[in-house]
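Re: the pair you flagged

First of the two:
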Amino acid sequence: MRAKTFRRLPRADLALTAMGLGCSQMGGLYRATTPKEAAGVFEAAWEAGLRYFDTAPFYGYTRSEHRLGMLLADCPRAAYVLSSKVGRLMRPDASVAPGDDGWATPYPFRPFYDYSYGGVMRSFEDSLQRLGVSRIDVLYVHDIGRFTHGGQHEHYWDQLTSGGGFRALDELRRGGNVSAVGLGVNESEVVVDSLGEFDLDCVMLAGRYTLLDQSSLSPLLDECTRRGVGVVTAGVFNSGILAGNNKFNYEDAPADVVARVGALRAACAEFGVPIQAAALQFPMAHAAVVSCVVGTRTADQLIQNLDWFEQSIPDAFWDAVRERRLIDPAAPVPSSGDMPC
C-alpha cells in the first residue's frame, strides 16, 4: 500500500491518507525538536503526499499545536485532514519545567483533565486559536480510561457521559465544526464502553493493535468493523521495542515480550524483512483500520518510515509468523497482492 493512498472513514465524509504524521515530536517528546527539524519533517511529509496530521494540546504543553498551525498556514485548508484532542485544559503556570511529563521544552501551561461539556468546548476553541484554523476535521477525546486515571476514572467518565462531554462532541459534529469525533487512547476497554454510550466515528488506538499486541482484536476491532467505526493506529512500534530499543509501553520490556520480539526478529531475518516494515504494515490489513499515524523527529526518519511502509513483504513471511503463533491466528495479515505494481 502506498502511504498517500486515501481511505474513507465509513461514518463521515472524510478520507485520511494511509499514513498520517503524528506531531508529538513537534512538542519535544523526551528531547527538544528544533524549528528546522519540525519544518523538515512537515515538508517531507507533504512532499510524499501525506495529508493527515494529528496533534494535541498536551504535546509540548501546546507547543505542537502552535508549530503545526504555523506549518499548515500556507497550505490550502481543503487539501489536508487535521485532528486534535480534548480532555485537558491548559492553564498558564510559571512553574512548568523542562522534562515535565516527558516534554523537553514545554510551554508554560499546565494540563488539567476536564471531560465536561464546558471543558470540551473550551479545549476545542483554544485549539482552533493555537492552530489558526476555523475547524478541526477529527476531534478525539484524549486519554480517558481506567488505566490512565486509576481511582479517578469514574469521576472523569461521569464528566464525559453525564457531564456533557459526549454531548459537546455531538453538538460540534452536528454543527459542522468537526467532521468526525472519537477517542484517542491507549486502552481498548474504554472504547468498548464508549460505543455503548455514544456514536463514535473513529478511534485512535495507540499500542493496542500492533505486530506485538493484538489485545484489541476482539471485541473492539470486531465491533468497530460491524459498526463502521474507523480505526487509526498509533504507537505501532510499542514504545520502540519494534524499532530497536528495549522499551515496551514506556517502560523496560519484560522478559516474555523481549523473547517474543526476538522470535519476530528471527522470522524477519529469515525472510529479509525489516521488523519495522512488518510493524508498520501489519495493522493496515484489518478492515476497520483506515490510517497509521507515525511521529518522527527528522525528515530522514520520516523518509525511512515511508520506505518501510511501502516495502514489499512476501506472503510467506506472514504465513510463517502465523504458523509460529507469533500473532493472533485470527488477525488478518497483509497480502503482496494488495501492493500496487
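Second of the two:
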Amino acid sequence: MRCLRFFYRLYTLNANKKMDISQVRYAKKQRQGETNYAPVPQEMLKSIVKSGLQICCYYDNIPSEPKPSSEPIRRFPYYCISHMIEGEGFLSLEGKKHLQTFSPGHAVIACPGTFQNYGSLKGSICFSGAAADALREAGVLSDRVIYIGLERRLFPVIKKIREPGLISALEANAMLISLLIEVHRERLNVKNEGSRHNLQKLLTYIDENPGYWWTVEEMSEYCNISSNYLRQLFYEETGMSPKQYIDQLKMRHASEMLRAGKMKVAEIASSLGFKDPFHFIRRFSNLTGTSPRRYREYYNMN
C-alpha cells in the first residue's frame, strides 16, 4: 500500500504532464500470476536507494494487453524491461507512425517519461535510481525492442528479490545490472555481425560494378550504420579507408583490362567511371608508379 501511495503521489505531481501510471496501479491487479508493487520492504528502502538502484515492482507470468485507442498513450516514472515468451508482442512509441510487432524471445526496454504502449508480455521488472540513469547515459538503456531468447532471463532476478533480507535485495540489484549490460553487449554483437555481413555484400556489389563512384554516405546507408562506424569497419575488414579501397579496386580492374590488351585507355577510363582519360591516367600513375601505356607495354613484352 505504501508503494501504491508513492505512485499516486507521483501521478499527482505529474498531472500537468499527463503521466499515466494507471496500468501499474490497477490494470494487472486481477490477473493470474504474481505481481509485487513493493518488493523492497520499507525498512530497507533507504539503504537500497543509496545503492543506486531500486526495483520498484515486478510482474511474473502476467500478460499485458493493449490499452484502448481512446485512452491517452502512457508513460512511466521508471525504467522497465519486459520479456515475451509466447504469442505476439507489439510496441507503439509517440512519434512513430506504425505499430511495431515482434515474436517470442524479444523484450521491450522503456525509459522514464517515454510515451509508449506495449503488450502481450509475460514478465516485467521496473526499476529506477542513479545506476539506471548512468546505464542510460552509457547507451545500455534506451527505448527499443531487443531479442534476448526464450529463456526466462528475468526470473532469476525476480526469484532473488523474493528472498528476505537486505543482502538478497542488493544481490537482485547486481543481477539486474549485470543482465542489462549482458543484453546490451549481445545486441552490439548481433549488430556487429549484421554490419559485417552487409559490408561483405557491399564489397561484392562494388567489385561487380567498378564504374560507380560510391560516397561514404551511400555506403553507410547501404550497410545501415553510421559513417564513422563504416570507416572503422572498413579498416578492420580491408585494412584501408573506403576511398582507398575504391581507388585500389578501380586500379585492379584497370590493370586486368590493360593486360588483356583489347580496350583503349579512354574506354577503360570510361568503364571505371572516370570523367575523362586524363584523370584516369593521372590517378593510375600516382597509385601504381607507372602510366597505363607503360604498364600495358611491360606486360605485352613479358
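The chain has twelve helices and nine strands.

-B.
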